Amino acid sequence: MLYEDLNQIVTSLKEAKQGTYKLEKSRCALFFDNIHAFPKNVELESILTFVGEATGKFIKSVTPSPESVSYRQHVSFIELPDDNYKPRVFHPESGYFYTSYYDYATPIDQPIEKKFITRHRLEKKNPEMAVSEVKKPIIYYIDPGCPEPIKTALVEGGKWWSQAFEAAGFKNAFDVRELPAGAHPLDVRYNMIQWVHRSTRGWSYGSSITDPRTGEIIKGHVSLGSLRVRQDFMIAQGIASPYKDDDENSVIMTKMAIDRLHQLSAHEIGHTIGLAHNFAASTNDRSSVMDYPHPYITLDASGKPDFSHAYDDKIGAWDKRTIMYGYSVFKDAADEKVGLEKIILDNHSLGLRFLTDQDARSAGSASPVNHLWDSGADPLSELDRILKVREYAMSQFGLNTIPKGTPVSELEKIFVPVYFMHRYQAEAVSKLIGGLEYNYAVKGFGEITPLRPVEKSIQDKALTSMLNLLTEKNLAIPENIKGWLYPPAFGYGRSGESFSTGASPAFDPLKVYEMASGQLVELLLQPERMARLSNEGRLSAYLKNISESLLNNAENDLIRQSANTAFVSRLLTMTINESTSHFIKAEIFKSLNEYKSRVKKMVKRNKESAFLQYVVKLLDMDSDEISQIKFPSIPTLPPGAPIGSCSLD
Ligand SMILES: [Zn+2]
User: Fold this and answer.
1) ipTM score for this prediction
2) 214 and 73 belong to one structural domain
């Protein structure tokens, strides 16, 4: 069994277009260093060698000989816990992950699928007391190999959870310690926080080994990528440009990166104690560490950046409530039912919200409050605020951004997060358009109001805000910055984190404009957003607003021009897309016809504009030509998330 491809590596590589490989059993062996027997688990590991041909770049980037790749496969046999654990029922508003199974003996009038939250077992020494010591605390152990000051940050951040357990009535219930000498990270009795190295940016993971019968977490296991702390440092560096007189001046940036690690540690541990993301928390007074926080950098009275509130320094109000739901001790089943219901109802009264990945990750999603990497209760004013910080950063950007000894060409990498500082907040603004006010309402748990769209006046403001962004005034790269964007120095190069360029070795501003305007136009024209607007009978007016605004002064504005070509190409593509409904196609054709007549009038006034002639050419295509032409795709934005984190639960 240990020499079988249990993780289906061959299939995964093939599906990811990374190569055709097969397992070479004569080149497989046991890996004795990671074969262990502990009191509650047996760990087995083997080295599997796959031979074949790499067709993608991933394998080539991490191995000297892509034609044969060895991989370590780990298998765990873990003792299931005793029967003394009582599962806790799942509620969509509880904030927890769940485990489920079908009980076919369920009476016909009750749900056949049984859902229980995932959580650790935690018992009070004195269950009758409101606050009690616990029989066995939940302890997480940190990888002793993790370097300082990172190790201390991870320990301190992880310990924030003790605030939540205390609020729920558990004394000394939660702690984070260094893994003691002699203990092994693979021993299932130790919840672990590992510090791992990667080839490129990657997620951090908070995952758990869970009893599939009950949802009881047997072991929490957090893996934090060592590389990603550097992204936060770079964001701060690009804003502060601190190296005018002092090359050692990295205190502010380091502090911000370390502050983020506190938060990241709490976040990933949060997954391993059972919790799902709450992306509605940053619009709800930073109520949870289970959101993805954008660094909240402000400008002080003198106009200088203030990094002191970039990240929160404590557990959130929502986090305390989730621990109450998951871990509170009740005297019997009836008491538990009433108690849990009260917790959910009180969450509503406290104004706390919970929405998770399914309602946030897609750019076409509908919630106006549930976004990744955003800040503040009002996406519109926050976008304006971020644009001011961005403007400040741009005004300072240059040789003072890097310390002595750094090739000037490295400035381009730091310019990526500065230039795209608005990208996530703009996405939050776009979600107001065609947005819906909703939650995971359950009958019997408080007042339920009918679903309603985001107020029209707010949707209009959001559209105006997005369209205002799409001008040279906001998105052009100032000449003083272009002068510092050198081709890569010898020994240095662009990476997957850099802007792509069609003008190699030079930086390519026009390509960046296509990325920046393309991102915003794509947000405006997400198929789901358009479908919702069509359902509200507002799509035609919406498309007309966009096209009129984009054509305004387009001949003289390069950002407007790339926004127009993105707008036209996207709509033309939708006209031949089989998943676009007839209703929507009809509105698109109407919009394109109106757009075309406006452009033709503009051509008469300005016969020299290559841009206008090009747009007319695009609009004159019939469906056969549209299906044959390869529109230049919108260049992909460099990855920009401040620091990756995600859950495998
Ligand atoms: Zn996460």
Assistant:
1) 1.00
2) no
